[in-house]
Amino acid sequence: MYGWIWRHIPFKRWQLKALVSLVLAGVAGALLWYQLFPAVEPLLPFDDVQVETTTGDSPAPAPSTTAPQVLPS
User: Is pLDDT at 64 greater than 70 in this prediction?
Assistant: First the structure.
């Protein structure tokens, strides 16, 4: 794929080809960062974190009404 892109850049000097390649990579990165990633972020489960603290056959603790405490790792 990269070879195909390099061959189809219309300049002969490698410096100009390298500059155009960097600009294309920047444009692709910006499109991903500002358009695609925000569009799919609601579909990803990163905010749906559940931690179970049960051990063995003991019953699960009652749900707490307070916010869970986050401890540094």
Answer: no
Token digits of residue 51:
């931690």
Name the token pair of 41.
């972020």
Note the pLDDT tens digit of each residue in 10-50: 989 999 999 999 999 999 999 999 999 999 988 888 777 77
Report the alpha-carbon distance of residue 21 to residue 11 in Å, rounded: 11
* Burial of residue 21, with CB atoms counted within 10 A of its CB: 0-12 exposed, 13-18 middle, 19 or more buried: middle
User: Which of 32, 30, 2 lies closest to 18 in space, CA to CA?
Assistant: 2
Give residue 59's pLDDT: 61
Q: In angstroms, how far is the first alpha carbon of the chain from the final one?
A: 42
